[in-house]
Amino acid sequence: MKKNSLVGAFKDLLGAENVMESETDRMNYAYDAAVLAPVMPGLVVRPRNTEDIGAILKLCNENNIPVTVRGAGTNLSGGTIPSMGGLVMLTNGLQRIIEINEADMYAIVEPGVITAQLASAVAAKGLFYPPDPGSQTVSTIAGNVAENAGGLRGLKYGVSKDYVMGMEFYDATGTHVRTGSKTVKCVTGFNLAGLMTASEGCFGVYSQITLKLVPPPKASRSMMAVYDSVDQAAETVAAIIAAKIIPCTLEFMDNFTIRTVEDFAKVGLPTEAKALLLIEVDGHPAQVEDEAAEVETICKANGASRIQVAQNAEERNKVWEARRTALSALAKLRPTTVLEDATVPRSRIPDMVRGLDAIAARHKLTIGTFGHAGDGNLHPTILCDKRDREEWHRVEKGVEEIFELALGMGGTLSGEHGIGLAKAGFMEKEIGRGSIEFSRKIKRAVDPKNILNPGKIIGG
Amino acid sequence: MGDLKRLHRLLMDIDDMLAGCMRCGMCQSVCPVFARTLNEGDVARGKIALLEGLSHQMISDAEGVKCKLDKCLLCGSCSASCPSGVKATDIFLKARAALTEYTGLSPVKKAIFRGTLTHPELFNRLVDMGSKFQGIMTKKANAYHGTSCAPMLSSILGNRQIVPLASKPFRKSHPSMDTPAGKSGLKVAFYPGCLVDKMYTGIGEAVLKVMKHHGVGVFLPANQACCGMPALASGDTKSFEKLVDLNLNCFSGKGFDVLVTPCATCTATLKKVWPMMAENLDMKRRREIDALSAKVMDINQFLVDKVGVRPKDGAEGRAVTFHDPCHLGKSLGVFSQPRTLIQASGRYHIKEMQDANTCCGSGGSFNLQHYETSTQIGQKKRDNIVATQAEIVATGCPACMMQLTDMLASKGDKVRVKHSIELYAETL
């Protein structure tokens, strides 16, 4: 990578201003949002347009240079941490929304379009793009698709993969590939878009993505239910689903998180409560009316000690303020914040919370748990100081046990953050040897020189 | 080049502040410089990563890190919205000091800060001379805004539309003053700041008029010096500390209720940066600084919160749009008070612009070092101002006023740039 002729080749291709090689520039692309050690790349390049992506990949493949694609660098599992001396390709400059089609309800975007900006452009046309990961104000669509990012609305509206209709991408050799369609139905060829989604940059680099849009709900109603036990909150979640009601959001906060949020934001949370559920139903106004009343009844029947239904936009905002500040309130407690996303079947949430408490006690860890109760995707958040080696060792043990706990309940290592480097070593426990071997066979077939984000997901 | 070991030690002193950054990258959504360049090194997360890299010896290019650190408006947008509460601007000021100690201060900056700024009398004489000769160096560029261009100085100033130096500085008209509290029962110490003294003397006059009107006593001591921000932003702690001392001599222990300034940057510097940078000073000076900082208040905030100026119900009149200076809004949480002041007479009403609270791109010396980026950020602000169709854009910081004037004048827009205190004063 240090070969000057190669750097020159990239400069010839992209212009010197789009090739960064200084120590500081390389340091700036050595990390992402995962709590992992930085790895210095050898070169950082910025494609000027989507065609450049193919040309960059071709040059990398010919010269055996590992490539890691980076959007906003908000990855929580190390998927954007490059290979030592490899190349980082920045796609955050490719920000064009090519089309928002109201009649056929789809959007075509370049990879670097920011999630929240797409959502607001779509909303301006009277449509709705639901995936709303926590980093949506900075995250890019390509990053969301590569990680299959979720968000608060996952329970009812699904996650990023549910909105991918088609895409164009470049494979490891720089060959342009098209898959999927603007039509609702399309069975033309293999579902390559499905393969590419959640592939974390291991199979190719997106140049254009076609996303499904839906009509926005006409009404919504939010409420907060307070519980004296986690079991009651979890039983409520199960009962709501059993009543055939799918709220658009159904969020959980444990006592530690409640106390921390209240200390920080003073939004009037009951600090003695063992658990909180924040629930929002949306849809047609009449349906919302019915479902909100029914949810309220279910909450009461399952032992909620208090229910607060938002009567207007201001009250609704207040209900969600608590949830929005959860991570940042927790993050302010200690220097290092380890945000996990192991996910369990929703019926196992009480067991999961109990298990997390036990892990916290066993390893003397501070863990605040909040998250998406409706889909079993909790965020146990470990607050620590990674500079303290002894404490960090306990954190690592704790994280390992969280994975085991979730897998033991038939859950999964990651609901929405991805595998990347952080969880690659635990994959076999969940999916088995055969699945890893099969994945590796695919990887070898589409990327024989293993230049596309090597080491991520399946190791090697 | 200085002592690398000492640099590591100085950086390790701020290690606790650096460790709080969880690399979430949310600062990308608010950083005005990043919005233009999309480069990680321009956003707070990237700068903090470089400082950690340097202090933990993963990288060694201190000059390179300093270069990235200098490309920052110090607007505080990142600190104000950081989920984990990282005080990025505090970190950058301390790191700039450490890095400048290592790399050394440039000869030009040395001459400006150590040779001039820290000697207020000399500084005043030089500026006075400049004001007399500026006609030779500049040519009138925009009669509406009263700005000039300086073709002979274009290597330094580019095509900037610059606000001329006042023919008679404010402090020359009012060398010192000490009037007792009147009907308000309040007495303020008045710190005009350099730009009000030397360019925007009308703001100084407006403050005196308003204080007189409300029966507020004014203590205006002679020999005030610069607040120190320009020196500190360039990493020159030595000059900064000298300037703090000069000002403490003027104000410390004197009888007044509040120290007011009409400059958002001066206010934020006196109120927040002085105590933050005082950690290494001796106990006596720290106490003096803490006592004085506690009394510092923005002029708008003073008039509304202390004197009790209220907006007139259903204010109509001419439309004014207000630009929130970063050091007033994001740093000090002063948003409503200047709007109240503008609407107090009923002669003006506020017409909000889009993104009133985003930076105008001035950033002090950032404007000199990175004029192109500064202008791109400023033009966006200009577009938002013009879109309101307001006749006047008001703000609370002379540095923002210079930038807004440059942006509007270069496009030939007929929008007046005013300080909120000027608008209020002219209605009395």
TrEMBL record, chain A:
Keywords: FAD, Flavoprotein, Oxidoreductase
Key word Flavoprotein present: yes
GO MF term list: FAD binding; oxidoreductase activity
Keyword Lipoprotein found: no
Chain coiled-coil ranges: none
All residue ranges annotated as the FAD-binding PCMH-type domain in the record: 37-216
Cofactor: FAD
UniProt xrefs under Gene3D superfamilies: 3.30.465.10, 3.30.70.2190, 3.30.70.2740, Uridine Diphospho-n-acetylenolpyruvylglucosamine Reductase, domain 2, Vanillyl-alcohol Oxidase, Chain A, domain 4
Chain ranges passing through the membrane: none
PROSITE patterns listed in its UniProt record: FAD_PCMH
Annotated Pfam families: FAD-oxidase_C, FAD_binding_4
UniProt family annotation: Belongs to the FAD-binding oxidoreductase/transferase type 4 family.
Protein name: Glycolate oxidase
Native source species: Desulfobotulus alkaliphilus
UniProtKB/TrEMBL annotation, chain B:
Keyword 4Fe-4S found: yes
Pfam families, sorted: CCG, Fer4_8
MF term (GO), any: metal ion binding
Superkingdom of origin organism: Bacteria
Residue span, 4Fe-4S ferredoxin-type domain: 10-41, 63-92
Keywords assigned by UniProt, alphabetized: 4Fe-4S, Electron transport, Iron, Iron-sulfur, Metal-binding, Repeat, Transport
EC number(s) on file: 1.1.99.14
Cofactor note as given: Binds 2 [4Fe-4S] clusters.
Catalytic activity: glycolate + A = glyoxylate + AH2; (R)-lactate + A = pyruvate + AH2
Keyword Transmembrane helix included in the entry's annotation: no
InterPro entries with a match to the protein in the record: 4Fe4S_Fe-S-bd (IPR017896), 4Fe4S_Fe_S_CS (IPR017900), Cys_rich_dom (IPR004017), Glc_ox_4Fe-4S (IPR012257), Helical_ferredxn (IPR009051)
Cofactor(s), by name: [4Fe-4S] cluster
Function: Component of a complex that catalyzes the oxidation of glycolate to glyoxylate.
Protein name, as recorded: Glycolate oxidase iron-sulfur subunit
Species this chain originates from: Desulfobotulus alkaliphilus
